[in-house]
Write a structure and sequence with these properties.
The complex is a heterodimer of chains A (298) and B (268).
Chain A lengths: L5 E10 L2 E11 L4 E5 L6 H8 L7 E6 L2 E3 L3 H6 L1 E4 L11 H11 L4 H14 L15 H13 L5 E5 L7 H16 L3 E6 L2 H7 L2 E6 L2 E6 L1 H9 L2 E6 L2 H14 L3 E4 L2 E4 L13 E4 L2 H9 L5
Parallel strand pairs in A: 3-8, 3-9, 6-7, 7-8
Antiparallel strand pairs in A: 1-2, 1-4, 4-5, 9-10, 11-13, 11-14, 12-13
Helix pairs in contact in A: 3-4, 5-6, 8-10
Chain B lengths: L18 H40 L6 E2 L2 E2 H32 L2 H7 L4 H19 L2 H9 L10 H22 L5 H15 L12 H8 L2 H14 L5 H28 L2
The chains are: A alpha/beta (298), B mainly alpha (268).
């Protein structure tokens, strides 16, 4: 059996009074796309920084690709690619120049650098913009260049920190196609996100993070089944009606949540005829997430 | 070959200050320099020209000799030190601060197999190399104005490199300490300006009050000026070993302090 690509045991990280990571246990198997789902402030970005040793854990053990961190983080970083949440490209350089610089930083052999840059440009569909300065690229192109930069050395593991945050839907779709392509090629990926749809669509396994630790983990289907059941009934009505339904759910011990203009009652298939009239739909990852954390998410 | 197949990188035991990491970071600097070398070179030539015009032509009309040097020789060699100071301390401060805080470049580099020691060392090395070369500019300008060229002037490159290494480290250290970029105004006014004035650049420190004369001996730029003057004007002697020693010590201390302080800010 292959060792896990990432193993975190009992990690803690505090910044002054704030506990960002609080007893985090996480294991990412090789070859999967692993989604780290959580609201802002759940500790996802700190977890990513712990994995590149840009943050050092106060306690706990972390290993990446078999290398213990932080002692051998450099060896691990040689075989992993990082796609950051915030754009940190050199805006004065061209796509080709940036990729060439990072090919060198990632120790791609001199005779392979040219091909590596061409390949990364092709993956990111930026061949036609190879000699365009970053400052002249659109937001979507810059994001794709960030992905290409993280793949320049054919990493065994890719960390994607909120890869589509702040992007418009069309660019998000482009990025998802790119990530989906990597997944189908067997690249191990750890992707943090606070978009339910992103995790549901791309991740083989999802860990739900809240308050600095993982509170549930499984395939999206397993999480939905375990925490939201199979069906959800959404009851619409006046604010008074919704309050009544919420109170009824609380009295009966049903798992429910406010969902926009409705109250959603989970595990409707187990509740018989007592369930108020409403619209029945399949449970989804958002239902499971809210049931787990009590927090709404995008 | 797919993205997921084995990486072509050679995974091996890593050591401190890997040449590959230093070369990688410096490659980025060189590529960036290709974008703005004209502006940098322009200021490196125009600035000493202005100093030489102002001091050699202006004050030189009143003061013909300082010790056994003509005032032109004295100022032209003195201006080398200011050129080295400005072309190392300012990039150390501003480039570091902007790349770290505004452009987040250092986050990107540290996510690659580069550590803080390598990052800071490469940045300082690059700045020092530039400072060493740009240190020649005042001498070239001085030659146009009548300074006699000597083979010893070529020693200005390593002297400028060593001094630039120290001041680049000093700049990086300040960037790691500064809370905002405006903080550099205090440093420029209260530290760098007095430093280049009280270094024997435009007038000998022997003309200064005793207290300031002693303080000047602790000014690394004073030792740079003495070395440059002795190398360029044919007066190298045993005392210059002490000047070089001070510059070496300054460079080592600033290098390590810059790594330590920026490391505490970049790795949390």
């Amino acid at each position: 059996m292959q060792p896990p690509a990432i193993a975190i045991r009992g990690a803690h990280k505090r910044y002054g009074e704030i506990t960002a990571v609080n007893g985090l246990d996480l294991e990412v198997a090789a070859g999967v796309c692993f989604g780290l789902l959580g609201p802002n402030g759940a500790g996802k970005s700190t977890t990513m920084r712990l994995l590149t040793a840009q943050s050092l854990a106060d306690a706990g053990e972390i290993s990446v690709l078999g290398y213990p961190l932080p002692a051998q983080s450099k060896q691990a970083r040689m075989q992993m690619g990082v796609v950051p949440q915030l754009d940190n490209l050199d805006i004065e350089l061209t796509c080709r120049q940036i990729l060439s610089v990072f090919a060198r930083l990632y120790r791609v052999a001199r005779h392979e650098r040219h091909a590596a840059v061409a390949r990364a440009l092709q993956i990111a569909n930026l061949g036609a913009r190879a000699d365009t300065r970053v400052s002249d690229l659109s937001g979507g192109m810059r994001r794709r260049l960030l992905v290409a930069r993280g793949l320049i050395h054919r990493p065994r593991l890719v960390l994607l920190d909120e890869p589509t945050v702040g992007l418009d839907p069309q660019i998000r779709q482009e990025l998802w196609s790119l990530i989906d392509g990597l997944r189908s090629e067997g690249v191990t990926m750890l992707m943090s996100t606070h978009y339910i749809e992103e995790a549901e669509r791309l991740a083989d396994v999802v860990a739900v993070m809240s308050a600095g630790r993982v509170i549930a983990q499984g395939t999206p289907a397993e999480l939905v089944r375990a925490h939201a059941g199979e069906r959800v009934v959404e009851v619409y009505g006046t604010p008074e009606r919704l309050t009544q339904v919420s109170e009824l759910a609380a009295q009966r011990g049903w798992s429910s949540r406010r969902s926009g203009p409705a109250v959603a009652i989970m595990r409707a298939e187990t509740l018989g005829e007592e369930v108020p009239d409403g619209t029945s739909r399949p449970a989804n990852l958002e239902d499971a997430f809210v049931a787990l954390t009590g927090e709404e998410i995008e | 070959m797919s993205a997921g197949e084995s990486a072509p990188v050679e995974v091996r035991r890593v050591r401190r200050l890997e040449p590959a990491a230093l070369a990688g970071v410096m490659t980025r600097d060189v590529v960036l320099f290709g974008r703005y070398w004209k502006a940098t070179t322009f200021s490196s030539i125009v600035q000493p020209t202005i100093y030489l015009l102002a001091f050699a032509a202006g004050i030189g009309a009143l003061v013909h000799r300082v010790g056994h040097f003509s005032y032109l020789d004295y100022v032209a060699t003195g201006v080398v030190a200011t050129a080295v100071l400005f072309s190392s301390a300012f990039p150390g401060m501003f480039n570091t601060f902007v790349r770290w805080r505004f452009q987040r470049t250092y986050d990107a580099l540290l996510a690659a197999p580069v550590d803080v020691e390598e990052l800071v060392t490469a940045e300082i090395l690059w700045i020092a190399l530039r400072a060493g070369v740009y240190g020649l500019a005042p001498l070239v300008v001085g030659i146009v104005f009548g300074l006699h060229p000597t083979a010893g002037m070529l020693l200005v490159v390593p002297i400028g490199f060593l001094t630039g290494f120290g001041f680049a480290g000093f700049g990086v250290l300040l960037a790691a300490i500064a809370k905002t970029i405006d903080n550099f105004n205090y440093v420029t006014s209260a530290v760098l300006t007095p430093m280049f004035l009280v270094a024997g650049t435009f007038f000998p420190i022997t003309s200064l009050p005793a207290g300031i004369r002693v303080a000047a001996k602790f000014n690394p730029l004073y030792h740079c000026v003495q070395l440059v003057r002795d190398a360029s004007l044919g007066g190298l002697g045993v005392a210059d070993l002490a000047h070089a020693g001070v510059l070496l010590l300054f460079a080592l201390v600033m290098w390590r302090l810059a790594i330590w302080r920026l490391g505490t800010r970049l790795i949390d």
